[in-house]
Amino acid sequence: MKKLINDPNAVVQEMIEGMIAAHPDKLKTIPGTTVLVRKDAPVQGKVGLVSGGGSGHEPAHAGYVGKGMLDAAVAGEVFTSPTPDQVFEAIKAVDGGKGVLLIIKNYTGDVLNFEMAAEMAEAEGIKVAKVIVNDDVAVEDSTYTTGRRGIAGTILVHKIAGAMADTGASLEEVEAVAKKVISNVRTMGMALTPCTVPAAGKPGFEHGEKEMEIGMGIHGEPGIEKTEIQPANQVAETLVNKILEDMPLVEKDRVAIMINGLGGTPIMELYIVNKKVAEMMKEKGIDVHETFVGNYMTSLEMAGCSVTLLKLDDQLAELLDAPSDAIAFKKS
Amino acid sequence: MKKLINDPNAVVQEMIEGMIAAHPDKLKTIPGTTVLVRKDAPVQGKVGLVSGGGSGHEPAHAGYVGKGMLDAAVAGEVFTSPTPDQVFEAIKAVDGGKGVLLIIKNYTGDVLNFEMAAEMAEAEGIKVAKVIVNDDVAVEDSTYTTGRRGIAGTILVHKIAGAMADTGASLEEVEAVAKKVISNVRTMGMALTPCTVPAAGKPGFEHGEKEMEIGMGIHGEPGIEKTEIQPANQVAETLVNKILEDMPLVEKDRVAIMINGLGGTPIMELYIVNKKVAEMMKEKGIDVHETFVGNYMTSLEMAGCSVTLLKLDDQLAELLDAPSDAIAFKKS
Amino acid sequence: MKLTIARAKEWMLTFNQRIQEEKDHLTELDQAIGDGDHGLNMARGFQEVVKKIEPTNYDTLDALFKDVAMTLISKVGGASGPLYGTAFLRLSTALKAESEANREKFVEGLKAALDGIKARGKAHRGDKTMVDVWEPVVDYVQSQSTIHLSQLNELAKEKMEETKDLEAKMGRASYLGKRSIGTIDPGAASSYLLFASLADCFQKGEMD
Amino acid sequence: MKLTIARAKEWMLTFNQRIQEEKDHLTELDQAIGDGDHGLNMARGFQEVVKKIEPTNYDTLDALFKDVAMTLISKVGGASGPLYGTAFLRLSTALKAESEANREKFVEGLKAALDGIKARGKAHRGDKTMVDVWEPVVDYVQSQSTIHLSQLNELAKEKMEETKDLEAKMGRASYLGKRSIGTIDPGAASSYLLFASLADCFQKGEMD
Ligand SMILES: Nc1ncnc2c1ncn2[C@@H]1O[C@H](COP(=O)(O)OP(=O)(O)O)[C@@H](O)[C@H]1O
Ligand SMILES: Nc1ncnc2c1ncn2[C@@H]1O[C@H](COP(=O)(O)OP(=O)(O)O)[C@@H](O)[C@H]1O
Ligand SMILES: [Mg+2]
Ligand SMILES: [Mg+2]
Ligand SMILES: [Mg+2]
Ligand SMILES: [Mg+2]
């Protein structure tokens, strides 16, 4: 394991200290927790937004804390959902009197722990709403199962719900727009190499020298197909087509695109993937409102990428364009 | 070689197309070249800023093109300086009548090719000035040799010179402030794993399973010492101390810090490094004006990091704080 | 038979011991169809539980089980933390202010715990989760006039083993679809250890 | 002996052939003390040079060498592109409007080329660069009344080999400091091939 760390069991705590040291004017932490909060929280008269999950997906989620996006991010152990007491601390820290929206990625652990936190908060009289992001089309959707995972599309929920909260909207309104994003966003990913959880010390799985995996999850959950490494154009086609199967787009539809790197893939390659994705959109007459290319929702040092498509209407486009001063999602 | 590419010999061209597709409102390219230019270039009455170098260091340098930073970036083949005709095209595209500053990383190839381009431009009556960034303290400095390499500190030159140009300053003034940054900035790096140039197909070197290298260059140039992997705290100390040997800092000095990832290292680890760097600054009573943590000057998928310290005075601090809308260095 | 505070404590200590022994095995099961942390999660959580309850003197069962629940909830995370946490919280509530529970009361408490798991996790029997052990065990203790400890143990074990052939519908293993068939569910395996520990702690052959 | 247009072309074609043959060797030298692209750079550049000059009819030597220079400058990049490019540009300028060059004129041109390399790269003899081959070769052709082609070849080879023991002061190898000792400089090696090709193209034993 080749990592720049001190103690595999202290990575989350040390990372948080390093974040506070780097961004003391933007972030603060609640002592004794792994919660990162907007420096000026709670913002009175604004719905508070809390997200989080296991660590190892940086800059998610602390990088999305800031004016115009999240009010707090709760960091669990690497790839492990945070516990309800931590989430509860975050809720208390950001409640500015208009209630708090929890943005949860759809994993059983995250859902259960955030739900329990919501119950604790409600017991203390804080109004809480929850939305569950499940953008990963690699997983079969079904109301009878755990359903789809939440991956990179989550960041667009943060952005748009954050902008809505900034307008002074009510908790119900912010929740409604977050749900609209969720119903309009789809992601499909692939991986070329595994990653190593520091405390585990060795990779969670292995791929062959020439193998890649379509549909792999951001914690190394198995994908839907292992194949020989394909050219970037073919990978882009596979990912986009899988999304379009689930969410058909027609001419003149408007989308935002996110080409997300999983941590170990050079930015150069992400742009090469985007070249093809943009061509496909052009061919289909789809209007690309904005494209984000970078490492937004990573999986430690995993090599690979995901493509996210968010179908926009006027409201979503306007909120997406709104300013944000989150460290990893600055917009002006 | 596990890469998301199509043709190893077309990576630069395809990347540029992907960039233009992603950021059509910010960037344009000069057909038939590998030059990326600010959409609204040439900006009349402003000194134009051109940088560039071999590709594989993304987001450097195209990610730093935008209002408040560079006017154009010239991309060479992977790890190979661009040719003078390409640089010349960039100079012509950004000259708004006040002359053009070339920001060059100190590698023989870069220096020679940019110099020839400057001669071509001068022959056409365009005023050109050049600054050469040599922030890498891993290399022995000497006026009789090629001297130090230019690495991550270059981005702070882009930022501050760009802000100066935005004030309407003359070419001489912009050149002077760029030189001031260069004389105040130092970087020291280390690597854990090698990277693979796509056209080469295999890593340029190998490290042992438990080996790291202090002082390695961003093209895989050998460093000053190979050792067993050390804890992040020790690595941070080694890097900072090497910088301080060369540029002593005293109590109350003000600095900007950049913790730069080489491409394959998770953001989590960069923050763990920053924790220690920040502690060292605090111990020495040094005032940290701003900290940048992220992948700014990469080496494809190499794992490792560099630490940059820039000593600030009031002028440099103010220019560093100025807004920028470059894709990879947004500031408001 | 009565559930005294001493016996309840012993149950938790025995369970912890079994968990620590089987930690790697539980993790291996989770590596096969989940994310490979179930053994770590349970071991971390129950180590903290023991640290909390062992030196504490309790006057009531609900105070003890509340400490178990809150420790699990705040130390485990993942799916199993809130699920086991909820189970012990419901058990605590059912035993409100009792310093010991007769069989009927205890069985009521176990039923409440199961209902808590189901309410929280929304899994049904057959979804390849811990519910596949909990529900038949609770059915058994509710329906029998005489509870044979060895039968209880055997039943829990059998139901755990039956999860091997199921396709996961809930939890992380559900992403695997049919590929989840062939491995015992890790949460079912830890739940079996819970009931095996319970049986162990009542030294007689019957629970009356 | 005269440098005619045909002979100049032949020189470039022969050099290209040698470069293509020695491409891997040049790259290996650069892998040891540089960034491992010198063979690739030279091969790419001279392939383009040949593509450009082979089908073209030239009336003057300067037009031919200007095409060589401009092709190298625009296709090679790195350190060697501008250096070889400058050398051929200076050679071109020195031979302005000539359709053939006598020995004196040609030697003047080579001296101008060397001066170009030194002006551009600021390297001195002993810095472990191509200058360590170019300068002694130019000194030789300037100082001898009779130029023996085999001597020219031998001298270039010897000087190339001597770079092995030098510590690099310029170029990428300089980062290695003393560790650059023990490998022949790649640019010195390609420069040796340039002069070896020159010697080959004048079939006689002397150049007069
Ligand atoms: N919705 C659910 N209802 C009941 N039990 C569940 C549910 N989801 C998961 N589980 C149980 O939790 C176990 C996994 O626990 P653990 O590995 O600790 O958490 P995680 O899956 O978050 O890593 C599964 O084996 C299963 O028995
Ligand atoms: N300043 C210089 N002056 C003369 N020759 C130089 C100088 N710097 C480098 N060289 C020559 O260039 C060669 C390297 O060329 P090449 O590998 O193509 O470029 P790069 O070093 O940019 O990869 C060296 O072996 C050396 O002979
Ligand atoms: Mg887990
Ligand atoms: Mg090179
Ligand atoms: Mg698990
Ligand atoms: Mg080279």
UniProtKB/TrEMBL annotation, chains A, B:
Gene Ontology cellular-component annotations: cytosol
The reaction(s) this protein catalyses: dihydroxyacetone + phosphoenolpyruvate = dihydroxyacetone phosphate + pyruvate
Sorted UniProt keywords: Glycerol metabolism, Kinase, Transferase
GO molecular function terms listed in the Swiss-Prot or TrEMBL record: glycerone kinase activity; phosphoenolpyruvate-glycerone phosphotransferase activity
Pathway: Polyol metabolism; glycerol degradation
Gene3D superfamilies: Dihydroxyacetone kinase, domain 1, Dihydroxyacetone kinase, domain 2
Role summary: Dihydroxyacetone binding subunit of the dihydroxyacetone kinase, which is responsible for the phosphoenolpyruvate (PEP)-dependent phosphorylation of dihydroxyacetone via a phosphoryl group transfer from DhaL-ATP.
Protein name: phosphoenolpyruvate--glycerone phosphotransferase
Organism name: Fervidibacillus halotolerans
TrEMBL record, chains C, D:
Protein name according to UniProt: phosphoenolpyruvate--glycerone phosphotransferase
UniProt subunit comment: Homodimer. The dihydroxyacetone kinase complex is composed of a homodimer of DhaM, a homodimer of DhaK and the subunit DhaL.
All residue ranges annotated as the DhaL domain in the record: 6-200
Keyword hit for Signal: no
Species of the source: Fervidibacillus halotolerans
A biological process from GO: glycerol catabolic process
Gene3D superfamilies: 1.25.40.340
Entry annotated with the keyword RNA-binding: no
InterPro entries: DhaK_L_YcgS (IPR012737), DhaL_dom (IPR004007), DhaL_dom_sf (IPR036117), Dihydroxyacetone_Kinase (IPR050861)
Domain of life of the native organism: Bacteria
PANTHER family, sorted: TRIOKINASE/FMN CYCLASE, TRIOKINASE_FMN CYCLASE
